[in-house]
Design a protein that fits this description.
The chain has 213 residues and is an alpha+beta fold. The protein has 10 helices and 6 strands. The protein has a two-stranded antiparallel sheet with strand order 1-2.
């Protein structure tokens, strides 16, 4: 694997045509708005751009390219992070160079700033109904780290709420859930609420994908 800093050094060899080709794939709008990448994406949603430099082809994250084109240099060992949480954003004013620790802290804080006690309790109720952290994150447009902290009662504490943590599914527990489903005609939604699992997990247990009997 090529070291990021070594790969970044190759950017000084880009031609004006190659740089213009990058900006042609950016949907540039107002100064304070997100400028979204319209080209290829990595599987995780971040934009990517390939450049042939010499005999080799290199793939770069578009946020790193945008930062480089604006500032001329990427500080060694640092990430290029988003203030906006929009993975496709290429607006240089939405980007900053930071450490992994800074990026994680800012990511959590941005999610926390969208939350009040009412929303936190709604999130807990959604989890009780069997919604996954990923689904709750999409529903409230809040990052999964912040959702997890609420469900573990680390942030926005509710002392009447039992924290939801990852539980190990034993063979005995899986058998009990299947028996409950068959004998008592309980819906998967109600089982998820009763046993504090997502509906997807309950479905996998019932369909013998977890601790097959």
């Amino acid at each position: 694997m090529i070291n990021k800093s070594n790969k970044d050094n190759k950017l000084s060899f880009l031609t004006e045509k190659q740089i213009n080709d990058f900006w042609n794939k950016v949907n540039i709008s107002l100064k304070n708005e997100c400028w979204e990448w319209t080209g290829h994406l990595y599987h995780n949603g971040y934009g990517q751009k390939r450049y042939k430099l010499g005999k080799k082809t290199y793939t770069f994250k578009v946020n790193r390219l945008s930062y480089y084109f604006e500032h001329g240099k990427i500080p060694q060992g640092l990430l290029i992070c988003h203030h906006c949480d929009n993975k496709k954003c290429c607006n240089p004013s939405h980007l900053y160079a930071g450490t992994v620790k800074q990026n994680t802290r800012d990511y959590i804080e941005r999610g926390t700033n969208k939350i009040n006690m009412k929303i936190a309790n709604e999130i807990r109720e959604s989890a009780k109904l069997g919604l996954s952290i990923k689904d709750i994150s999409k529903k409230y447009n809040i990052n999964t780290c912040s959702i997890s902290q609420i469900l573990r009662n680390i942030s926005w504490k509710n002392y009447n709420f039992t924290p939801i943590t990852k539980r190990k599914i034993t063979f005995e527990l899986a058998s009990k859930i299947r028996l409950d489903y068959i004998t008592n005609d309980v819906s998967q939604k109600n089982l998820a609420q009763k046993y504090n699992f997502s509906r997807a997990t309950i479905c996998n247990i019932i369909n013998n994908k977890v601790h097959n009997e």
